[in-house]
């Protein structure tokens, strides 16, 4: 399903806008909440009760669904607010969304970084209206609704209004301008107009006392008449929301086309930073869509933090770092380094203000809400950026926070015992110690680095030497097979523990189903027994969850890059498509889409190790716009192949790297230093239909070449 939406977005911008049905998980669409099997339908058609703002992209059950400030164009009485109408003739472009309601209203929306502009074309009607509902939030599912805690709304006359709603402790302010000459404007409460009223104040709202409220603009409409609604948002009050609106929309003039073209230009710039040549039309479409999805989140808003008063970037909707740190964050580092630096600066500030680095961070204070998923993931991103030597971060101060964060949550038990359950946190924390040691060493704190590196070797305590797999424990959204093949800092030791290259590769073969019968996929609403029997297979579940994203590349470390090529080619061919259902699982804020981008380029970033693994690309030629200019991946012997249903009657056989050169010099290794990519250059890969010996004897770097001793 992907769990994405077709609404208007801006690259890494603060605001999105889309049709709102209340369905899971973005507020758009027809489906009920679901985490296993095929989802149930909430509605039998696409429909909308209006258009909301601040949607998630690709997430699952995070209990934070936004969809604030619903705007509804109506030719019905106010009593009908909340009713849904069928959507027809939907159209979606980068930065633009349009649809017809079957009430006869044509609806168009575009967004800027901190603004949204709606344009409604009405049929002939004596009493048309635009209704803005400030009380709306969340989804129409159990426990999905978000209720404002406090609110105020003000009608300022002359087509202007403003309001603030405090949602989950965060004050969201909006300044509104409506281009509707001759129309009246009024406040309303509980679907009743308040003639002459200019302000509503709610000091305390609860689920039991909430009644919808907002403002309304109403008047006669000629057939084809358009009404423009301009909205500026801020997390720092109505005045800053007004300033944001003026900065992006200007003053007193229709702004829809201006904002639309500005956002379109931003998308052209960002999407143009990765270019591919060759490939079928379907493959290019999936690639472009994947790149687009990779650049929607996180939201990075300058000078908008509601939790600290200082200027600077504020990043939210990092939902969750557990999903994006391996793929999407390295992609931002490569092609949007300025915004990526802003994101890291924001994370450091969150740690300073709230006490720990977030595993996921939303538009609400509280950085530890995802602590069950993983530990200490920001350390990987910081280590990579420090190794690249990028300016703008106070690394001495960052190191202080990195070290302190290692002792929080599960880190305290890890510090004392060298192992912690859930056992995957042992891997997280040992890896974070390794990443932090690299930063400490770069800052010449060698004593600290040595101590951290010693503790990083405690990864071994997570594994059972009898099985070569992780020890029995509880696992988050996976099992010990899923988590046993992650790319660690000591893969040489990990492979030795499993019994060597052949034994490790055999385990991977079993995990990926080599020689096994096809598996029946779960259907709609599978019962627990059906799901349990599937999990008991201990098989690769496709790319529909974070633990499995990097597993295909584990073969590189045991001298079998040919296996990586086979699995990645199969995933690119069969698991992604151009229609609904074109993603094999939650897109997870771009984490899955970024996997597709990297895999199509023939590269995979090893987060925290300043490293890229090399594989056969899906395109004849590709180029990334990076800090140092352009990094080009070109091939000889490339063969085009179709994807998905287009390839049913064609042989999807993979291609294998036969030899490689980097900037004209032979490359015998299956990996690159990340600096080689970020500085720009040219990677040439000669491809062929049969596996070769390329890279078999030159493995990616590891912390050690022998089995490390267990720490006691």
Automatic annotation (TrEMBL):
Where in this chain does the record put each Glycosyl hydrolase family domain?
240-688
Q: Which GO terms describe its molecular function?
A: carbohydrate binding; peptide-N4-(N-acetyl-beta-glucosaminyl)asparagine amidase activity
Native organism is Actinoplanes philippinensis
- Residues of the signal peptide: none
Identify the residues that the record assigns to the Glycosyl hydrolase family 92 N-terminal domain, covering every copy. Answer: 2-234
Give one GO biological process term: glycoprotein catabolic process
Ranges for the region named Disordered are 683-712
> PANTHER family attached here?
PEPTIDE N-GLYCANASE PNGASE -RELATED, PUTATIVE-RELATED
Q: What do the Gene Ontology cellular component annotations say?
A: cytosol
Protein name (Swiss-Prot/TrEMBL):
Putative alpha-1,2-mannosidase
Give the source's domain of life in one word. Bacteria
């Amino acid at each position: 399903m992907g769990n994405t939406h077709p609404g208007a977005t801006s690259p890494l911008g603060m605001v999105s806008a889309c049709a709102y049905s209340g369905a899971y998980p973005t507020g758009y669409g027809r489906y009920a909440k679901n985490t296993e099997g095929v989802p149930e339908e909430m509605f039998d058609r696409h429909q909308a009760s209006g258009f909301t703002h601040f949607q998630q992209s690709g997430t699952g059950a995070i209990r934070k669904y936004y969809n604030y400030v619903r705007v509804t164009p109506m030719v019905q009485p106010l009593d009908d607010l909340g009713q849904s109408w069928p959507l027809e003739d939907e159209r979606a472009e980068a930065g633009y969304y349009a649809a017809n309601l079957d009430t006869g209203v044509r609806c168009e929306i575009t967004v800027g970084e901190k603004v949204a502009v709606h344009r409604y074309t009405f049929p002939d009607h004596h009493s048309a209206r635009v209704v803005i509902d400030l009380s709306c939030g969340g989804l129409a599912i159990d426990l999905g609704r978000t209720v404002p805690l406090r609110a105020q709304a003000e009608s300022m006359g002359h087509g202007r209004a403003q309001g603030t709603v405090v949602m989950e402790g965060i004050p969201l302010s909006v300044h509104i301008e409506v281009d509707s000459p001759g129309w009246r404007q009024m406040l309303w409460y509980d679907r009743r107009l308040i003639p002459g009223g200019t302000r509503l104040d709610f000091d305390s709202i609860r689920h039991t006392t909430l009644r919808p409220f907002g403002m309304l603009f109403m008047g006669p409409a000629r057939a084809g008449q358009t009404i423009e609604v301009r909205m500026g948002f801020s997390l720092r009050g109505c005045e800053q929301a007004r300033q944001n609106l003026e900065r992006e929309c200007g003053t007193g003039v229709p702004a829809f086309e201006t904002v639309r073209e500005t956002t379109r230009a931003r998308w052209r710039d960002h999407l143009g930073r990765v270019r591919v040549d060759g490939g079928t039309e379907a493959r290019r479409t999936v690639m472009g869509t994947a790149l687009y999805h990779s650049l929607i989140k996180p939201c990075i808003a300058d000078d908008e933090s509601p939790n600290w008063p200082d200027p600077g970037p504020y990043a939210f909707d990092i939902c969750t770092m557990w999903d994006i740190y391996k793929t999407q964050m390295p992609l931002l580092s490569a092609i949007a380094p300025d915004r990526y630096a802003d994101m890291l600066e924001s994370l450091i500030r969150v740690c300073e203000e709230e006490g720990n680095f977030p595993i996921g961070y939303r538009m609400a204070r509280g950085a530890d809400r995802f602590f069950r998923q993983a530990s200490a993931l920001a350390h990987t991103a910081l280590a990579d950026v420090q190794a690249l030597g990028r300016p703008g971060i106070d690394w001495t101060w960052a190191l202080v926070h990195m070290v302190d964060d290692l002792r929080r949550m599960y880190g305290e038990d890890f510090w004392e015992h060298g192992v912690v359950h859930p056992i995957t946190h042992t891997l997280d924390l040992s890896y974070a110690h390794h990443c932090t040691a690299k930063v400490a060493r770069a800052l010449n704190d060698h004593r600290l680095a040595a101590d951290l590196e010693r503790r990083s070797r405690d990864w071994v305590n997570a594994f059972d030497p009898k099985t070569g797999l992780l020890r029995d424990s509880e696992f988050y959204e996976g099992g010990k097979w899923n988590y046993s093949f992650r790319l660690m800092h000591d893969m040489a030791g990990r492979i030795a523990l499993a019994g060597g290259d052949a034994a490790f590769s055999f385990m991977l073969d079993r995990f990926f189903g080599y020689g096994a019968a096809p598996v029946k996929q779960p259907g709609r609403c599978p019962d627990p027994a059906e799901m349990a029997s599937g999990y008991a297979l201990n098989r690769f579940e496709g790319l529909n969850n974070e633990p499995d994203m990097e597993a295909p590349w584990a073969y590189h470390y045991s001298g079998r890059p040919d296996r990586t090529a086979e699995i990645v080619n199969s995933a690119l061919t069969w698991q992604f498509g151009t229609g609904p259902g074109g993603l094999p699982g939650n897109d997870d804020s771009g984490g899955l889409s970024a996997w597709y981008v990297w895999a199509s380029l023939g590269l995979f970033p090893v987060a925290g190790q300043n490293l890229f693994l090399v594989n056969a690309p899906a395109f004849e030629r590709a180029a990334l716009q990076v800090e140092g200019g352009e990094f080009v991946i070109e091939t000889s012997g490339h063969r085009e192949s179709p994807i998905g249903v287009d390839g049913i009657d064609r042989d999807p056989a993979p291609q294998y790297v036969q030899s490689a050169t980097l900037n004209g010099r032979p490359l015998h290794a299956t990996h690159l230093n990340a600096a080689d990519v970020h500085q720009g250059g040219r990677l040439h890969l000669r491809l062929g239909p049969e596996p070769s010996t390329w890279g078999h004897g030159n493995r990616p770097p590891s912390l050690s070449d022998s089995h490390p001793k267990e720490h006691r």
